[in-house]
């Protein structure tokens, strides 16, 4: 029944909206309700758009909102996850998680810049566009589906996959070396196989598949081979965590 | 039925917990579920308490959490309330709302320091204890009842009564003068009547009742007569807002 309703509601959309909807649903892990918030989240200042009241609209206000939501979801996560961390520790860890560099990585990984409509070529936006779009996207999720869904998205798509407290604390230097060490101990063959990835908008990307024991265990994509290897290793580490920690 | 269940659950508490519960419910506007979070929110570092795992516990971690929740609720409020404000404006307004001075005022008004168990005399805590306790209290509400209730408390008990965007913008200098002006225009008698208020813990407070047309329109309590008058005037202004703006 839900699927049926979903199909009807999808069919009532323009083809363009339908594609946007599908892409968003894939990133979110749930259906967006009102696309207008996401359109705003991907509207650059250079588009000079005005809303129905003549107020300029772009994603900058949503950045403010998304930043606040991100701050509170991460705060709650750290509070629960690190019962022994005092106020200073929690504050420091949160700054690391929501650092400009990290937010840029997230925006880039979701390729949010691909949604932007603007009169400027996106290569002129500068590096921080990725993080800004990511924050605005979080703001749009909050307006569209409320705090609970915003938190759900951040927990399942961000925290689970990107927030690694041990690594942030500097306890884990390289997941690649942990994986290699484990494979050697277990006498299992492994290889990092690079795949061509032309990326978008001229930005060069490297894709990598990590094979362990002749099976693909994880994939990753990043702006350098080294980063892609480390990311794939981290994912493999979490996938294999139970096995690895048992040894 | 709900009342009945509530009564049963209340009767199962110790007398001490029962009093704490009633006091909290009065401040919150809804029932707390688990008192332990609030006990923690009112535990000062000087108590040297340890939890069941031997980790020192006091309200400092909850301050971090409450600060984050406060930040996101206020961000959403400003985003919706000031559609024409850009990112810089929103950021500035939020800082004013969550300023140390303002948080101290809130903590003081709710008399949160009255809940603190500590080995130090509370007069030694310094002024910021009030704001710190207020933040910790917000953190406790979040842990106890979740984001929705935390937001509900902040909207009904804080934003509605304390957050006045016009005043923060400096557009309204004095509510007392607005009230006096309106009373004179309407030819209505008014008076500020001070009541004795010995406060707690040696801090001197002034209570005031604002009578307009021989009726008590609002009351307030503050550390100076001037502040109490202004606060009572602000409350009267909001109570009479429809009438005032019609003229």
TrEMBL record, chains A, B:
<keyword id="KW-0540">Nuclease</keyword>
<feature type="binding site">
    <location>
        <position position="132"/>
    </location>
    <ligand>
        <name>Mg(2+)</name>
    </ligand>
</feature>
<comment type="subunit">
    <text>Homodimer.</text>
</comment>
<feature type="binding site">
    <location>
        <position position="63"/>
    </location>
    <ligand>
        <name>Mg(2+)</name>
    </ligand>
</feature>
<feature type="domain" description="DRBM">
    <location>
        <begin position="174"/>
        <end position="242"/>
    </location>
</feature>
<keyword id="KW-0507">mRNA processing</keyword>
<keyword id="KW-0378">Hydrolase</keyword>
<dbReference type="InterPro" id="IPR036389">
    <property type="entry name" value="RNase_III_sf"/>
</dbReference>
<feature type="binding site">
    <location>
        <position position="135"/>
    </location>
    <ligand>
        <name>Mg(2+)</name>
    </ligand>
</feature>
<keyword id="KW-0460">Magnesium</keyword>
<keyword id="KW-0699">rRNA-binding</keyword>
<comment type="function">
    <text>Digests double-stranded RNA. Involved in the processing of primary rRNA transcript to yield the immediate precursors to the large and small rRNAs (23S and 16S). Processes some mRNAs, and tRNAs when they are encoded in the rRNA operon. Processes pre-crRNA and tracrRNA of type II CRISPR loci if present in the organism.</text>
</comment>
<dbReference type="Pfam" id="PF00035">
    <property type="entry name" value="dsrm"/>
</dbReference>
<dbReference type="InterPro" id="IPR014720">
    <property type="entry name" value="dsRBD_dom"/>
</dbReference>
<keyword id="KW-0698">rRNA processing</keyword>
<keyword id="KW-0963">Cytoplasm</keyword>
<keyword id="KW-0819">tRNA processing</keyword>
<dbReference type="Pfam" id="PF14622">
    <property type="entry name" value="Ribonucleas_3_3"/>
</dbReference>
<feature type="active site">
    <location>
        <position position="135"/>
    </location>
</feature>
<dbReference type="InterPro" id="IPR000999">
    <property type="entry name" value="RNase_III_dom"/>
</dbReference>
<comment type="similarity">
    <text>Belongs to the ribonuclease III family.</text>
</comment>
<keyword id="KW-0694">RNA-binding</keyword>
<keyword id="KW-0255">Endonuclease</keyword>
<feature type="active site">
    <location>
        <position position="67"/>
    </location>
</feature>
<dbReference type="InterPro" id="IPR011907">
    <property type="entry name" value="RNase_III"/>
</dbReference>
<keyword id="KW-0479">Metal-binding</keyword>
<feature type="domain" description="RNase III">
    <location>
        <begin position="21"/>
        <end position="146"/>
    </location>
</feature>
<protein>
    <recommendedName>
        <fullName>Ribonuclease 3</fullName>
        <ecNumber>3.1.26.3</ecNumber>
    </recommendedName>
</protein>
<dbReference type="GO" id="GO:0004525">
    <property type="term" value="F:ribonuclease III activity"/>
</dbReference>
